[in-house]
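=== Per-residue structure ===
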Amino acid sequence: MNARNSYLVAGNNGHCACHSDFNCQNCQGERPSARPHTGCSSAVNYFRHYLVAVATITTLFMGGIVGANPNEEGQNVMRVHYIEIVTKASDEQISLLEKVHGVEFGEPEADLGQARVAKLDSGTLLGVRSPLAEHEQPVTRTYYEVADIAAAVSAAEAAGGLVAYPPTQQGDSGTWAIYFLGEAQIGLWQR
């Protein structure tokens, strides 16, 4: 099951509940009301993990938990500081992003794992890099800006997150951390 099709579990528009195909080989052409096969169950679990991750992020940052960034009206705002794409095809991905979205990437940055970084119009940084170790899996990870990273990491742990990378100063770029919840990897970034 890939992430591209997992949303179909919730809104399948008449397709198989686990795929975009009308005639899923595993479901033998049965409609979404049919009992799901193993792949479908994985998709349902993936979707549940996704919903839990979204709920946790919403609770942590938009619900007023410590570490959020209040705006001038005192409301908490989620700001994406950095989007990290880790892929074995980093050169191809950079080329595609430049052609499709008109972004311009700089030279590799040592503080960011040799990622080539583009600054988007919104101010968000977009980095693309190759895996740093053989065991590192391809991922697209979003880092949310926080005012107090230690408090945000504590709140993430209290909400069920597993800290995979504790708060670490990365050169002049700031302090960042990564936590997992289910299959979602979320980054935190304090400037």
